[in-house]
Here is the input.
Amino acid sequence: MALRSILVAPLLVICIAAANCGVHFGAKGAPDRSHGRLVYVTDGDTVKIDVGGRTVDVRLLGIDTPEKFPTRYGTAGECGAAAASALIRAFTGSRVTLVRDVSQDNLDRYGRLLRYVDLPNGRDLGGLAVARGLAIPYVVRDRPDRFSRYEALAEAARDQLRGSWSSCAGDFHSGLPGVQNGRREGR
Here is the structure.
């Protein structure tokens, strides 16, 4: 019996330690900040991040980019989709910090984490996309903490005709320049 206790006790300690070392992203107790590496870009506002050996899908919080793939909200290859994806893809392999906004849901309806993604130099990846004219500020229910900043960045991008503001008048959900919301202008 004593030998069994001697063998079981260290195993129990290892199991408890291993369980507490993992990163848990459930609704309650999700970390406000976690660190990882950007490993894959699905499109301009959705990425995969390796966090402690676990790959998680992350939806960049507070922005919307043109659809790269067909959805019920947009068509494939919308104006600026390739450029938005390419901008984010340039940071593949970078260390990032995922920042939770406690005013927002933890996960979206597709099970993706809703997070700001900050680069090592402190730059906000979503804010960078907005500043380059490749994303627009986006609200699901309540305004995210960084929304006012994103609005100012979008206004500057529009005024300076950056990104999609020059190629499709900022109507990201159009397929081609001169097509607004699926209709050719003037019709």
